[in-house]
Amino acid sequence: MTEAVAAWGATAPDAALAPMPIERRELRADDVAIHILYCGVCHSDLHTARNDWGRTRYPVVPGHEIVGRVNAIGSAVDGFAIGDAVAVGCLVDACLECPNCAEHQEQYCPGSVGTYNGRDRHDGSQTQGGYSKRVIVRDKFVLRVPDALDLSRAAPLLCAGITTWSPLRHWGVGPGKRVAVAGLGGLGHMGVKFAAALGAEVTMITTSPSKADDARSLGASHVLIATDKEAMKAATGRFDFILDTIPVAHEYQNYLRLLKASGHLVIVGAVDQMPGFHSGLLLGGRKSVAGSAIGGIKETQEMLDFCAEHGILPETETIAMADVNTAYERMEKSDVKYRFVIDMATL
User: Does domain 161-291 fall into CATH 3.20.20.140?
Assistant: First the structure.
């Protein structure tokens, strides 16, 4: 039997989020049911609620940064027990058979299923996210939250965290590397923390001089003001790797000049039509522009374990469920340091 669950969601692009009871499916043999304690608020939630990407099916319940405790398990589940602290990120299923899945890169599986606004692989029903009391997820997509992590702050690791961790690891960021992070927000502040903890020399690139102190407190050794033409010119050829976390379409041609030969600029923030650039900026130094999206389940667990070992958590502001629409408005104005987390006890 399905179960009615309290939730908040949107019914149209111009509708505010509001209470919306939803049905959670009956527990399958390989499912884990989770009582949600905290859910992060992501820019993707806002874009989906407002149909900015043209793919939203209504009604929709956002939320893919989920932390909670197991309250039921399917008959074939081995490895989770009632009461375990667990987490769910942007995916709740994938085919687990394609080459990407075989390489633990389920985020690139053609049949991956998003935590919300996705299609269940078995019955075709629409998935609904973490702005709710309970969620049911295939066991292989449930992550363990180490005891050392504060559950009330850990939720943004499941999107903002893994989105920055994955490219840093893939491109070998570590000791001896000079890394720049462009944009100091929900993604950028995690990029700084991770790059510093991995042993790189970290520079924050920002258009806001007022963010310099914050950047240094997060682990940046240097701050580069993108509107300072002389400072940007002096930094030409300085960086091995630039993590571009800016969440909207923007000019990044000047950032390419900052790369060393064979350097990489990786876009993780903007999901948009990006401006072009002169190919000579790549040809002149065998540079590359790439993109990266979240990470696989194995990689996400490794990130959570790394955070526990190194005492890394997002900077968060806890809100009540009823404040989510105000949080969306503030998020659009970058009025949060640096991620909202909903206390689901207030639902």
Answer: no
